[in-house]
Design brief:
By secondary structure, the chain is α/β, with parallel strands linked by helices. Helices cover 33% and strands 14% of the residues.
Length: 483
Protein backbone atom coordinates (compact mmCIF):
# COMPACT_ATOMS: atom_id res chain seq x y z
CA UNK A 1 0.00 0.00 0.00
CA UNK A 2 1.09 3.50 -0.70
CA UNK A 3 0.70 6.70 1.27
CA UNK A 4 0.34 10.25 0.01
CA UNK A 5 3.51 12.30 0.30
CA UNK A 6 1.71 15.28 1.85
CA UNK A 7 1.36 13.43 5.16
CA UNK A 8 4.27 10.99 5.11
CA UNK A 9 3.89 7.81 7.13
CA UNK A 10 0.62 8.57 8.91
CA UNK A 11 -1.86 7.10 6.42
CA UNK A 12 -0.83 3.49 6.80
CA UNK A 13 -4.09 1.58 7.19
CA UNK A 14 -6.12 -0.07 4.44
CA UNK A 15 -9.78 0.72 4.12
CA UNK A 16 -12.01 -2.24 4.76
CA UNK A 17 -15.21 -3.79 3.55
CA UNK A 18 -18.78 -2.58 3.35
CA UNK A 19 -21.68 -4.27 1.58
CA UNK A 20 -22.61 -3.69 -2.06
CA UNK A 21 -25.91 -4.38 -3.74
CA UNK A 22 -26.03 -6.18 -7.07
CA UNK A 23 -26.01 -3.90 -10.10
CA UNK A 24 -26.12 -6.13 -13.17
CA UNK A 25 -26.24 -4.36 -16.55
CA UNK A 26 -28.92 -5.15 -19.06
CA UNK A 27 -28.17 -8.32 -21.00
CA UNK A 28 -28.29 -6.52 -24.36
CA UNK A 29 -26.40 -3.41 -23.26
CA UNK A 30 -23.58 -2.48 -25.64
CA UNK A 31 -20.00 -2.94 -24.47
CA UNK A 32 -18.38 0.26 -23.16
CA UNK A 33 -16.24 2.26 -25.57
CA UNK A 34 -12.50 1.73 -25.36
CA UNK A 35 -9.27 2.79 -27.03
CA UNK A 36 -6.01 0.84 -27.03
CA UNK A 37 -2.34 1.50 -27.62
CA UNK A 38 1.02 -0.09 -26.98
CA UNK A 39 2.80 1.50 -24.03
CA UNK A 40 5.83 1.41 -21.76
CA UNK A 41 5.21 2.08 -18.07
CA UNK A 42 7.62 2.48 -15.14
CA UNK A 43 8.77 -0.80 -13.62
CA UNK A 44 8.36 -2.94 -16.75
CA UNK A 45 10.83 -3.13 -19.64
CA UNK A 46 8.54 -4.73 -22.20
CA UNK A 47 5.71 -3.09 -24.10
CA UNK A 48 2.27 -3.60 -22.59
CA UNK A 49 -1.27 -2.85 -23.76
CA UNK A 50 -2.71 0.36 -22.34
CA UNK A 51 -6.49 0.56 -22.66
CA UNK A 52 -8.83 3.41 -21.82
CA UNK A 53 -12.42 2.45 -21.00
CA UNK A 54 -15.14 5.10 -20.83
CA UNK A 55 -17.34 4.69 -17.74
CA UNK A 56 -19.91 7.04 -16.22
CA UNK A 57 -18.48 9.40 -13.65
CA UNK A 58 -21.84 9.19 -11.89
CA UNK A 59 -23.74 5.94 -12.47
CA UNK A 60 -26.95 7.70 -11.43
CA UNK A 61 -26.45 9.90 -14.51
CA UNK A 62 -25.15 7.47 -17.17
CA UNK A 63 -25.50 10.05 -19.95
CA UNK A 64 -23.43 12.58 -18.03
CA UNK A 65 -19.71 13.26 -18.08
CA UNK A 66 -17.60 10.12 -18.63
CA UNK A 67 -14.54 9.08 -16.68
CA UNK A 68 -11.66 7.58 -18.63
CA UNK A 69 -10.53 4.49 -16.75
CA UNK A 70 -6.98 3.28 -17.36
CA UNK A 71 -6.27 -0.44 -17.70
CA UNK A 72 -2.89 -2.09 -18.29
CA UNK A 73 -2.87 -5.56 -19.85
CA UNK A 74 0.14 -7.87 -19.79
CA UNK A 75 -0.86 -10.52 -22.36
CA UNK A 76 -0.42 -14.19 -21.55
CA UNK A 77 2.81 -15.72 -22.84
CA UNK A 78 0.84 -18.54 -24.48
CA UNK A 79 -1.99 -16.90 -26.35
CA UNK A 80 -5.34 -18.66 -26.45
CA UNK A 81 -4.74 -21.16 -23.65
CA UNK A 82 -6.95 -19.50 -21.01
CA UNK A 83 -9.88 -17.14 -21.53
CA UNK A 84 -10.16 -16.11 -17.85
CA UNK A 85 -7.65 -13.37 -16.98
CA UNK A 86 -6.41 -12.24 -13.57
CA UNK A 87 -7.70 -8.79 -12.60
CA UNK A 88 -5.29 -7.05 -10.19
CA UNK A 89 -6.81 -4.70 -7.60
CA UNK A 90 -4.32 -2.56 -5.68
CA UNK A 91 -4.53 -1.33 -2.09
CA UNK A 92 -5.10 1.93 -0.31
CA UNK A 93 -7.74 3.01 -1.14
CA UNK A 94 -5.79 5.27 -3.40
CA UNK A 95 -3.18 3.00 -4.98
CA UNK A 96 -3.41 2.31 -8.71
CA UNK A 97 -2.87 -0.90 -10.63
CA UNK A 98 -0.16 0.84 -12.63
CA UNK A 99 1.65 1.46 -9.32
CA UNK A 100 2.07 -2.28 -8.67
CA UNK A 101 3.32 -3.48 -12.06
CA UNK A 102 6.39 -4.92 -10.34
CA UNK A 103 4.10 -7.75 -9.21
CA UNK A 104 4.23 -9.05 -12.78
CA UNK A 105 7.65 -10.53 -12.05
CA UNK A 106 7.45 -10.81 -8.28
CA UNK A 107 4.13 -12.69 -8.02
CA UNK A 108 2.39 -13.32 -11.35
CA UNK A 109 5.11 -14.67 -13.67
CA UNK A 110 3.78 -18.25 -13.49
CA UNK A 111 0.16 -17.17 -13.76
CA UNK A 112 0.95 -15.13 -16.85
CA UNK A 113 2.15 -18.22 -18.69
CA UNK A 114 -1.47 -18.96 -19.60
CA UNK A 115 -3.52 -15.92 -18.51
CA UNK A 116 -3.66 -12.22 -19.25
CA UNK A 117 -2.80 -10.09 -16.21
CA UNK A 118 -5.01 -7.00 -16.09
CA UNK A 119 -3.98 -4.11 -13.82
CA UNK A 120 -6.80 -1.65 -13.18
CA UNK A 121 -6.34 1.93 -12.05
CA UNK A 122 -9.37 2.41 -9.81
CA UNK A 123 -11.31 5.62 -10.47
CA UNK A 124 -9.51 8.54 -8.87
CA UNK A 125 -6.10 6.81 -8.85
CA UNK A 126 -3.06 6.64 -11.08
CA UNK A 127 -3.95 7.26 -14.72
CA UNK A 128 -7.70 7.20 -14.03
CA UNK A 129 -8.08 10.85 -13.04
CA UNK A 130 -5.89 10.80 -9.94
CA UNK A 131 -7.38 12.79 -7.06
CA UNK A 132 -4.30 13.99 -5.26
CA UNK A 133 -2.85 16.92 -3.39
CA UNK A 134 0.33 18.72 -4.37
CA UNK A 135 3.43 17.46 -2.59
CA UNK A 136 5.97 20.03 -1.45
CA UNK A 137 9.40 19.54 0.12
CA UNK A 138 8.46 21.95 2.89
CA UNK A 139 5.80 19.52 4.12
CA UNK A 140 8.56 17.61 5.89
CA UNK A 141 9.21 20.47 8.31
CA UNK A 142 5.63 21.68 8.77
CA UNK A 143 3.77 21.25 12.03
CA UNK A 144 0.77 18.95 12.22
CA UNK A 145 -1.56 21.98 12.23
CA UNK A 146 0.11 23.36 9.12
CA UNK A 147 -0.23 20.03 7.36
CA UNK A 148 -3.90 19.88 8.26
CA UNK A 149 -4.33 23.36 6.80
CA UNK A 150 -2.64 22.21 3.59
CA UNK A 151 -4.99 19.25 3.33
CA UNK A 152 -8.04 21.38 3.97
CA UNK A 153 -6.96 23.82 1.28
CA UNK A 154 -6.54 20.91 -1.14
CA UNK A 155 -10.01 19.60 -0.27
CA UNK A 156 -11.52 23.06 -0.77
CA UNK A 157 -9.87 23.42 -4.19
CA UNK A 158 -11.17 20.08 -5.47
CA UNK A 159 -13.70 20.28 -8.32
CA UNK A 160 -14.62 16.60 -8.65
CA UNK A 161 -17.82 15.18 -7.07
CA UNK A 162 -16.19 13.06 -4.36
CA UNK A 163 -19.48 11.28 -3.64
CA UNK A 164 -19.00 9.46 -6.98
CA UNK A 165 -15.76 7.84 -5.83
CA UNK A 166 -16.99 4.87 -3.78
CA UNK A 167 -16.21 1.17 -3.61
CA UNK A 168 -19.60 0.46 -5.19
CA UNK A 169 -18.78 2.67 -8.18
CA UNK A 170 -15.32 1.08 -8.50
CA UNK A 171 -16.94 -2.38 -8.56
CA UNK A 172 -19.27 -1.28 -11.35
CA UNK A 173 -16.20 -0.01 -13.21
CA UNK A 174 -14.66 -3.49 -13.03
CA UNK A 175 -17.71 -4.94 -14.75
CA UNK A 176 -17.43 -2.32 -17.47
CA UNK A 177 -13.78 -3.26 -17.99
CA UNK A 178 -14.65 -6.97 -18.19
CA UNK A 179 -17.30 -6.30 -20.82
CA UNK A 180 -15.13 -3.85 -22.80
CA UNK A 181 -12.27 -6.35 -22.99
CA UNK A 182 -14.56 -9.21 -23.97
CA UNK A 183 -13.87 -11.61 -21.09
CA UNK A 184 -16.67 -13.96 -19.96
CA UNK A 185 -15.35 -14.62 -16.45
CA UNK A 186 -12.39 -13.22 -14.54
CA UNK A 187 -10.25 -14.20 -11.60
CA UNK A 188 -9.53 -11.50 -9.02
CA UNK A 189 -6.34 -10.80 -7.09
CA UNK A 190 -6.75 -8.12 -4.44
CA UNK A 191 -4.21 -6.79 -1.98
CA UNK A 192 -5.25 -4.99 1.22
CA UNK A 193 -8.02 -2.55 0.18
CA UNK A 194 -8.13 -4.47 -3.09
CA UNK A 195 -9.55 -7.42 -1.12
CA UNK A 196 -12.44 -5.21 -0.09
CA UNK A 197 -13.07 -4.15 -3.67
CA UNK A 198 -12.71 -7.75 -4.86
CA UNK A 199 -15.31 -9.00 -2.39
CA UNK A 200 -17.65 -6.16 -3.37
CA UNK A 201 -17.34 -7.06 -7.07
CA UNK A 202 -17.87 -10.77 -6.42
CA UNK A 203 -21.06 -9.98 -4.52
CA UNK A 204 -22.39 -7.52 -7.11
CA UNK A 205 -21.53 -9.65 -10.16
CA UNK A 206 -21.29 -13.29 -9.03
CA UNK A 207 -21.62 -14.63 -12.57
CA UNK A 208 -18.55 -12.70 -13.69
CA UNK A 209 -16.14 -14.09 -11.08
CA UNK A 210 -14.45 -17.47 -11.47
CA UNK A 211 -12.24 -17.27 -8.35
CA UNK A 212 -10.62 -14.86 -5.90
CA UNK A 213 -7.14 -14.56 -4.41
CA UNK A 214 -7.22 -12.14 -1.46
CA UNK A 215 -3.89 -11.13 0.09
CA UNK A 216 -4.05 -9.21 3.40
CA UNK A 217 -7.78 -9.77 3.77
CA UNK A 218 -10.14 -7.04 4.91
CA UNK A 219 -13.11 -8.33 6.90
CA UNK A 220 -16.56 -7.05 5.89
CA UNK A 221 -17.19 -5.50 9.31
CA UNK A 222 -13.80 -3.85 9.66
CA UNK A 223 -13.77 -0.08 10.20
CA UNK A 224 -11.01 2.39 9.50
CA UNK A 225 -9.50 4.07 11.43
CA UNK A 226 -10.28 1.42 14.05
CA UNK A 227 -7.00 -0.47 13.72
CA UNK A 228 -5.46 0.14 17.12
CA UNK A 229 -5.64 -3.36 18.54
CA UNK A 230 -4.16 -5.01 15.45
CA UNK A 231 -1.31 -2.52 15.25
CA UNK A 232 -0.58 -2.79 18.95
CA UNK A 233 -0.59 -6.59 18.75
CA UNK A 234 2.02 -6.47 15.97
CA UNK A 235 4.20 -4.07 17.96
CA UNK A 236 3.90 -6.18 21.13
CA UNK A 237 4.81 -9.24 19.08
CA UNK A 238 7.93 -7.52 17.78
CA UNK A 239 9.03 -6.55 21.30
CA UNK A 240 8.45 -10.13 22.47
CA UNK A 241 10.47 -11.52 19.55
CA UNK A 242 13.34 -9.19 20.40
CA UNK A 243 13.25 -10.35 24.01
CA UNK A 244 13.48 -14.00 22.86
CA UNK A 245 16.40 -13.29 20.53
CA UNK A 246 19.69 -13.40 22.42
CA UNK A 247 21.41 -10.76 20.30
CA UNK A 248 18.46 -8.36 20.22
CA UNK A 249 17.76 -8.72 23.94
CA UNK A 250 21.40 -8.06 24.77
CA UNK A 251 21.58 -4.98 22.52
CA UNK A 252 18.20 -3.55 23.60
CA UNK A 253 17.31 -4.91 27.07
CA UNK A 254 15.01 -1.97 27.85
CA UNK A 255 13.32 -1.67 24.46
CA UNK A 256 9.72 -1.31 25.60
CA UNK A 257 10.61 1.26 28.26
CA UNK A 258 12.61 3.24 25.69
CA UNK A 259 9.65 3.21 23.31
CA UNK A 260 7.18 4.31 26.00
CA UNK A 261 9.49 7.16 26.99
CA UNK A 262 9.76 8.33 23.38
CA UNK A 263 5.98 8.25 22.98
CA UNK A 264 5.63 10.45 26.07
CA UNK A 265 8.27 12.89 24.84
CA UNK A 266 6.84 13.34 21.35
CA UNK A 267 3.32 13.66 22.75
CA UNK A 268 4.55 16.45 25.03
CA UNK A 269 6.23 18.21 22.10
CA UNK A 270 9.68 17.82 23.66
CA UNK A 271 11.49 16.46 20.58
CA UNK A 272 12.77 19.45 18.62
CA UNK A 273 15.27 18.30 16.00
CA UNK A 274 17.87 20.06 13.88
CA UNK A 275 19.22 17.75 11.18
CA UNK A 276 20.72 18.07 7.70
CA UNK A 277 18.06 17.74 5.02
CA UNK A 278 18.84 14.44 3.22
CA UNK A 279 18.08 16.02 -0.17
CA UNK A 280 19.67 19.47 0.17
CA UNK A 281 22.14 19.01 3.07
CA UNK A 282 20.77 22.22 4.56
CA UNK A 283 20.18 22.23 8.30
CA UNK A 284 16.45 21.76 8.93
CA UNK A 285 14.57 22.27 12.17
CA UNK A 286 11.29 20.54 12.95
CA UNK A 287 9.37 18.90 15.78
CA UNK A 288 8.90 15.14 15.85
CA UNK A 289 5.16 14.92 16.46
CA UNK A 290 3.09 11.95 17.57
CA UNK A 291 1.63 11.69 14.08
CA UNK A 292 5.04 11.45 12.48
CA UNK A 293 6.57 9.19 15.11
CA UNK A 294 3.75 6.69 15.59
CA UNK A 295 2.81 6.77 11.91
CA UNK A 296 6.35 5.80 10.96
CA UNK A 297 6.46 3.04 13.57
CA UNK A 298 3.17 1.63 12.31
CA UNK A 299 4.34 1.80 8.70
CA UNK A 300 7.56 -0.04 9.56
CA UNK A 301 5.57 -2.95 10.99
CA UNK A 302 4.09 -3.79 7.57
CA UNK A 303 7.17 -5.73 6.42
CA UNK A 304 9.02 -8.07 8.83
CA UNK A 305 12.42 -7.23 7.33
CA UNK A 306 11.70 -3.56 8.03
CA UNK A 307 10.24 -4.28 11.46
CA UNK A 308 13.41 -6.07 12.56
CA UNK A 309 15.20 -2.71 12.19
CA UNK A 310 12.77 -0.96 14.51
CA UNK A 311 14.50 -1.85 17.81
CA UNK A 312 17.69 -0.24 16.49
CA UNK A 313 15.77 2.88 15.42
CA UNK A 314 13.98 3.18 18.77
CA UNK A 315 17.15 2.63 20.78
CA UNK A 316 19.10 5.16 18.70
CA UNK A 317 16.37 7.79 19.08
CA UNK A 318 16.13 7.17 22.83
CA UNK A 319 19.82 8.09 23.06
CA UNK A 320 19.31 11.30 21.08
CA UNK A 321 20.44 9.96 17.71
CA UNK A 322 17.35 10.54 15.59
CA UNK A 323 19.04 10.45 12.18
CA UNK A 324 18.30 6.75 11.40
CA UNK A 325 14.65 7.11 12.37
CA UNK A 326 14.19 10.30 10.33
CA UNK A 327 15.89 8.69 7.33
CA UNK A 328 13.39 5.83 7.49
CA UNK A 329 10.51 8.28 7.92
CA UNK A 330 11.59 10.14 4.79
CA UNK A 331 11.13 7.01 2.67
CA UNK A 332 7.36 7.58 2.88
CA UNK A 333 7.79 11.13 1.60
CA UNK A 334 10.11 10.54 -1.35
CA UNK A 335 9.28 13.43 -3.66
CA UNK A 336 10.97 11.67 -6.57
CA UNK A 337 8.31 8.96 -6.51
CA UNK A 338 5.09 9.67 -8.41
CA UNK A 339 3.42 6.39 -7.39
CA UNK A 340 1.97 7.84 -4.22
CA UNK A 341 -1.50 7.15 -2.91
CA UNK A 342 -4.32 9.37 -4.18
CA UNK A 343 -5.07 11.44 -1.11
CA UNK A 344 -8.53 12.74 -1.99
CA UNK A 345 -9.72 9.36 -3.24
CA UNK A 346 -8.56 7.84 0.04
CA UNK A 347 -10.59 10.27 2.09
CA UNK A 348 -13.61 10.14 -0.23
CA UNK A 349 -13.93 6.41 0.44
CA UNK A 350 -12.98 6.45 4.12
CA UNK A 351 -15.26 9.36 5.01
CA UNK A 352 -18.27 7.86 3.23
CA UNK A 353 -17.90 4.21 4.17
CA UNK A 354 -16.01 3.95 7.46
CA UNK A 355 -16.07 7.06 9.57
CA UNK A 356 -19.88 6.95 9.91
CA UNK A 357 -19.41 3.57 11.66
CA UNK A 358 -16.54 4.75 13.85
CA UNK A 359 -18.73 5.14 16.92
CA UNK A 360 -17.57 6.36 20.34
CA UNK A 361 -18.02 2.81 21.61
CA UNK A 362 -15.74 1.44 18.91
CA UNK A 363 -13.20 4.21 19.53
CA UNK A 364 -13.05 3.22 23.19
CA UNK A 365 -12.84 -0.51 22.50
CA UNK A 366 -10.09 -0.09 19.90
CA UNK A 367 -8.00 2.52 21.71
CA UNK A 368 -4.26 1.96 21.38
CA UNK A 369 -1.28 4.29 21.44
CA UNK A 370 0.02 3.33 18.02
CA UNK A 371 -3.18 4.29 16.18
CA UNK A 372 -4.25 7.26 18.28
CA UNK A 373 -3.06 10.05 15.91
CA UNK A 374 -4.78 8.46 12.92
CA UNK A 375 -7.97 7.78 14.86
CA UNK A 376 -8.13 11.44 15.86
CA UNK A 377 -7.10 12.96 12.52
CA UNK A 378 -9.35 11.20 10.01
CA UNK A 379 -12.74 12.10 11.55
CA UNK A 380 -11.65 15.74 11.74
CA UNK A 381 -10.73 15.81 8.07
CA UNK A 382 -13.97 14.10 7.13
CA UNK A 383 -15.81 17.16 8.37
CA UNK A 384 -14.39 18.94 5.32
CA UNK A 385 -15.18 16.11 2.89
CA UNK A 386 -18.78 16.58 1.82
CA UNK A 387 -19.79 13.01 1.00
CA UNK A 388 -22.96 11.23 2.11
CA UNK A 389 -22.59 8.20 4.36
CA UNK A 390 -22.74 4.84 2.59
CA UNK A 391 -24.95 2.50 4.67
CA UNK A 392 -23.35 -0.71 5.81
CA UNK A 393 -24.96 -3.83 4.34
CA UNK A 394 -24.42 -7.25 5.89
CA UNK A 395 -22.28 -9.35 3.52
CA UNK A 396 -24.02 -11.83 1.26
CA UNK A 397 -22.45 -15.21 0.55
CA UNK A 398 -19.67 -15.46 -2.05
CA UNK A 399 -19.93 -18.75 -3.95
CA UNK A 400 -16.76 -18.50 -6.05
CA UNK A 401 -13.69 -20.37 -4.69
CA UNK A 402 -11.40 -18.08 -2.72
CA UNK A 403 -7.79 -18.33 -1.57
CA UNK A 404 -7.12 -16.11 1.46
CA UNK A 405 -3.51 -15.23 2.30
CA UNK A 406 -2.47 -13.79 5.67
CA UNK A 407 0.80 -12.85 7.31
CA UNK A 408 0.86 -13.70 11.00
CA UNK A 409 2.82 -10.47 11.68
CA UNK A 410 0.48 -8.18 9.72
CA UNK A 411 -0.37 -5.01 11.72
CA UNK A 412 -3.49 -4.09 9.70
CA UNK A 413 -5.11 -7.23 8.29
CA UNK A 414 -3.91 -10.07 10.54
CA UNK A 415 -5.29 -13.63 10.15
CA UNK A 416 -8.37 -13.10 12.28
CA UNK A 417 -9.66 -10.62 9.68
CA UNK A 418 -9.50 -13.29 6.97
CA UNK A 419 -11.22 -15.77 9.26
CA UNK A 420 -14.10 -13.33 9.66
CA UNK A 421 -14.30 -12.75 5.90
CA UNK A 422 -14.31 -16.52 5.25
CA UNK A 423 -17.54 -16.91 7.25
CA UNK A 424 -19.45 -15.42 4.33
CA UNK A 425 -17.67 -17.48 1.66
CA UNK A 426 -18.84 -20.90 0.47
CA UNK A 427 -15.43 -22.24 -0.58
CA UNK A 428 -12.55 -20.42 1.12
CA UNK A 429 -9.04 -21.74 1.80
CA UNK A 430 -6.94 -19.76 4.26
CA UNK A 431 -3.12 -19.86 4.27
CA UNK A 432 -1.32 -18.18 7.18
CA UNK A 433 2.41 -17.50 6.79
CA UNK A 434 4.18 -17.33 10.14
CA UNK A 435 7.01 -14.99 9.13
CA UNK A 436 5.09 -12.70 6.77
CA UNK A 437 3.55 -9.29 7.30
CA UNK A 438 1.24 -7.29 5.04
CA UNK A 439 1.60 -9.05 1.69
CA UNK A 440 2.29 -12.71 0.94
CA UNK A 441 1.92 -13.31 -2.82
CA UNK A 442 5.53 -12.52 -3.73
CA UNK A 443 7.13 -14.63 -0.96
CA UNK A 444 8.68 -18.08 -1.17
CA UNK A 445 6.62 -20.56 -3.17
CA UNK A 446 3.53 -18.30 -3.26
CA UNK A 447 3.82 -17.50 -7.03
CA UNK A 448 3.66 -21.25 -7.76
CA UNK A 449 0.70 -21.66 -5.42
CA UNK A 450 -1.18 -18.84 -7.14
CA UNK A 451 -0.84 -20.65 -10.48
CA UNK A 452 -1.90 -23.97 -8.93
CA UNK A 453 -4.98 -22.43 -7.32
CA UNK A 454 -6.07 -20.53 -10.42
CA UNK A 455 -5.72 -23.63 -12.59
CA UNK A 456 -7.85 -25.75 -10.22
CA UNK A 457 -9.56 -23.47 -7.67
CA UNK A 458 -11.87 -26.24 -6.54
CA UNK A 459 -8.96 -28.43 -5.32
CA UNK A 460 -7.39 -28.35 -1.86
CA UNK A 461 -4.10 -26.45 -2.02
CA UNK A 462 -0.99 -27.88 -0.38
CA UNK A 463 0.69 -24.76 1.03
CA UNK A 464 3.17 -26.44 3.38
CA UNK A 465 6.06 -24.84 1.46
CA UNK A 466 5.11 -21.41 2.84
CA UNK A 467 6.48 -22.52 6.20
CA UNK A 468 9.93 -22.18 4.59
CA UNK A 469 9.66 -18.36 4.42
CA UNK A 470 12.39 -17.36 6.90
CA UNK A 471 12.23 -14.84 9.70
CA UNK A 472 14.53 -11.83 9.07
CA UNK A 473 17.31 -11.11 11.53
CA UNK A 474 17.35 -8.10 13.86
CA UNK A 475 19.49 -5.05 13.19
CA UNK A 476 21.88 -4.65 16.10
CA UNK A 477 23.94 -1.71 14.88
CA UNK A 478 24.53 0.82 12.14
CA UNK A 479 26.01 -1.79 9.80
CA UNK A 480 22.59 -3.34 9.20
CA UNK A 481 20.83 -6.63 10.06
CA UNK A 482 22.75 -9.57 11.45
CA UNK A 483 24.11 -11.92 8.77
Amino acid sequence: MKRSKILPAILSLPLLAAGLASAQPAANAPAPAKTERSCHLPGVVEALRCITVDVPLDYAKPQGAPLKLHVTVAPAYRQGTRSDPLFVLAGGPGQAGSDVLLLLKAAFERVRATRDIVFIDQRGTGLSGKLDCESKPEHERMTDDQLMAELRACIAANKQPLAAFTTAAAARDLEQVRRALGYQQVNLWGGSYGTRLGQAYARAYPGSVRSLVLDGVAAPDQVIPAGGRDGQAALDGLFAACARDAGCNKAYPNLRAEFDALVARVEAGDVRLSLPNPRTAEQTEFTMSSQRFLGTVHNILYAPADARRLPFLIHSASRGRWQPFVARQNLAGDFGNDASMSMLLHFAVVCAEDVPRFTPELMKADAAVIAKPLAEMIPKLCQDIEVPAVPYVAPSRIEAPALLLSGALDPVTPPHRAETAAKSMARAQHVVVANAGHGVSQLGCAPRLLRAFLDKPQDKLDAACMAEVPAPTFQLGSAGPQP
